[in-house]
């Protein structure tokens, strides 16, 4: 993970934005997973 951040800082602006979008995507996915687990939707 640290290498990804270091590489992003040395990349083009487009690469930096791309890495930022990846982090945002992972954050949204983790939040959705936690939300669904707490509501119990994963158990049918």
Radius of gyration from the alpha-carbon trace, in angstroms: 15 Å
Structural class: mainly alpha
Distance between the termini: 35 Å
Number of helices: 2
Write the element-wise H/E pattern from the N-terminal end onward: HH
- Give the overall shape: elongated
Mean pLDDT value: 82
Q: Give the biggest beta sheet.
A: none
Task: Specify the helix fraction band.
Answer: over 70%
How many extended strands?
A: 0
Could you list the spans in which at least 5 consecutive residues all have pLDDT below 50?
none
Strand content: under 5%
Describe the overall structure.
By secondary structure, the protein is mostly helical. The chain contains 2 helices and no strands. It is elongated and about 45 Å long.
Q: Tags for this entry?
A:
single chain; 44 residues; mainly alpha; 2 helices; 0% strand
Secondary-structure topology with pairs:
Elements: H1 2-9, H2 13-39
Quick overview of this protein structure:
With 44 residues, the protein is an all-alpha fold.
